[in-house]
Every structure is written in structure tokens, then in C-alpha cells.
Amino acid sequence: MMTQTMIAPETLEDALAAMHAEPGSMALAGGATLVAMMNAGLVEPNSLVALRHVDTLRGTRQLDDGGIELGAMRRHRETALETPFKDGQTVLSYAASQIANPTVRNMGTLGGSIAFNDPGADYPAALVAANATILIVGATGTREVSAEAFFVDWYTTALEAGELVAGVRVPAALVGSIGHYEKLARIAGDFAVASVALQVTWSGDSIAAARIAIGGSGPTPLHLAEADDMLIGTGADSDALSKAGLLLAQAADPVDDVRASADYRRKVIPRLLAKAMREIAPAREAA
Ligand SMILES: Cc1cc2nc3c(=O)[nH]c(=O)nc-3n(C[C@H](O)[C@H](O)[C@H](O)COP(=O)(O)OP(=O)(O)OC[C@H]3O[C@@H](n4cnc5c(N)ncnc54)[C@H](O)[C@@H]3O)c2cc1C
Predict the structure, then answer these.
(1) Which residue out of 54, 99, 258 has the highest number of ligand 1 atoms within 8 Å of its CB and is therefore the one to mutate?
(2) Whether 203 contacts 234, CB under 8 Å
(3) Architecture of domain 178-286
(4) Overall pTM surpassing 0.90 (yes/no)
(5) Cα of 252 to ligand 1 centre, how many Å?
(6) Angle (CA) 199 203 208, round 5°
């Protein structure tokens, strides 16, 4: 069967109504993934609801409490370059800057990426490290789900049929915290073999707060409060880092695929965590 229609509504209400009017409709955001899948015959939506004219899905809103709301149609390029982020919120711009290549970053959107939830994608772990929430709209209204709860399984999210991602809310990070995203890929521009997203706050020579999320190593980003706690009060010495890294590696649920074996991914997680800590050293010294 071929896609029958494509409409491009100007309001969110009309987009939601169109999704409901035609069962089997799919939202079209940047098209970087969806159009490639249609070309390959992997999906055949009855109708496409293009979101490009829905102004309320664009833009950035600074919140009074230091948080930021990002619209679902925000392109990866904007998140990488036009940074409204402060302190540890920068984990998101680091992640966005490592997505694919300039062409894909110009096309792809925040909402499209997280709705698709490719396990090798860069935003999911960064959003979990940033403790972000996902804003979801549907026929019955709006709901807000933590990033940790939003990514449910391989290519599966908390979105129900007919719902759309409206945006993402990124809470204020601790003053002086540092954000970083460390990605291992086979070649520049590829999806992650594994990745580490971090928010770390130093107090003098020791870590006062940490939030670590692992990407590319299971169906959803991995966050363990116990691993965060292993770094707190330490100077990020190699012993503390390898204990936290090993705990995360044991809890990860990677698979063997074309990019790497599950075993390799487990081995790489502690090394990526240590590398991420080395990479943030200059930012720490400058703070
Ligand atoms: C060559 C190539 C390399 C890539 N490399 C990377 C990489 O290294 N890292 C990475 O993270 N990503 C990578 N990607 C994926 C890229 O980030 C895509 O932009 C992203 O996965 C999909 O975003 P999109 O806006 O293009 O969504 P689309 O392709 O338009 O849609 C993707 C899916 O999300 C749904 N959808 C879109 N918007 C919404 C919404 N607001 N609410 C609900 N559902 C929605 C669509 O119905 C569809 O199912 C790559 C893609 C390509 C083509």
C-alpha cells in the first residue's frame, strides 16, 4: 500500500486531529529517518502529518527557575550551535554536535530523534543525564514524563498512538556543574557503539554531585544512582572511576550487532567514563 496523503497543518490541535482522523498516520518531522525507512519499504504510513509549519513546536523558552523548554522541531544543528544552555545542561549541545554530519544535523529534529529512540542515538543518554522531562500532547491533553521513563524498550517510547512529542524541559543544572558527552563510533558520523553522558559538580578537589547515563549499550539509556554515588566525595581517581564503570558495564544490556559485540561494549564503558572525566578537566580548571 502507498502513502495516500500528506498534510502540513499550522497548529498543534490540527496536527493531533489529523493523526486521529486517519488510523496509521505518522508524524513527519525532519524526515531524516522516516523518509529513508519509507524509501526502503520498511514503513508505509496511510498518511503523513508534516509538523514543519506548527510554530508552537519550535523555539526555546527560558523558564524562571533556570530550566529551558525546547520545541520538538528544534533541529540538531540549533541544539549544537545556538546554545541557550548553562552549566551541566551543556551535555545536550555536546550530544547534538556529535550526531551524524552537518546534513543530518540540519534536517533532524529533537522530537523525531527521541520519538524514534534508536538505541545508538545521542539524545537519549544526554537527556537522562540532564534529568530532562519529555512534554507529550494527545487528544486528552498534555503530560510530562521523565526521560528515564520515556525510553521504554528498543525503538519504543512512552508515546501512545496518536500522541506527539511537543518538546523537552531541561531543568537548571547545579551552578558550576559541567556537562559532557563522550561517544565512541566506528567512524565519524556513525551511530554510537557506546556513549557516556555526564553532569558533574566539583567542590574543591572532590565531586559533590554526579549524574551518569550510558547510551548505545541496551534498549534504553542506563542510569544507576548507585554508580553516581560511587563518584561522590572522590577526586575521580582511577579506582572510583573503574568501580563505577564496572557497575555500569555489568548492568548494561548490550547486543552483538554490526557495530560491535556486546562484550566489547561492556569493556568500553569504564574506559569511556574515564575518558569523559579526563575531557572535562580543562573546564573544571577554568571554573
Ligand atoms: C545517515 C544518518 C546518520 C545518522 N546518525 C545519527 C547519529 O550519529 N546519532 C543520532 O542520534 N542520530 C543519527 N541519525 C538519526 C537522526 O538524528 C534523525 O534526525 C532522527 O533519528 C529522526 O529525526 P527526524 O526529525 O528526521 O524525524 P523523522 O525522520 O521525521 O521521524 C522519525 C520518527 O519519529 C516520529 N516523529 C517525528 N517527530 C515526532 C513528534 N514530534 N512526535 C512524535 N513522533 C514523531 C516519526 O513519525 C517517525 O516515526 C542519523 C540519520 C541518518 C539518516
Answers:
(1) 99
(2) no
(3) 2-Layer Sandwich (3.30)
(4) yes
(5) 24
(6) 50
